[in-house]
Automatic annotation (TrEMBL):
Keywords: ATP-binding, Nucleotide-binding. It comes from Brevibacterium paucivorans. InterPro entries: P-loop_NTPase. Gene3D superfamilies: P-loop containing nucleotide triphosphate hydrolases. The keyword ATP-binding applies. GO terms for molecular function: ATP binding. SUPFAM superfamilies: P-loop containing nucleoside triphosphate hydrolases. This is Multidrug ABC transporter ATP-binding protein.
Length: 46
């Protein structure tokens, strides 16, 4: 069972037409470890 669900999520920074997330759908399952990884300045804290 999903404890959190993303459903068709889109994101763009203010004053920008370019989407950095486009139509993201994902189920986060209980008891599973998730990590957001990427290079410095890649936007992980967004």
């Amino acid at each position: 069972m999903a404890i959190m669900q993303l459903d068709h999520v889109n994101f763009s920074y203010p004053n920008s037409a370019k989407r950095v997330l486009s139509n993201v759908t994902y189920d986060f399952e209980e008891g599973t470890f998730y990590a957001i990884v990427g290079s410095s300045g890649a936007g992980k804290t967004t």
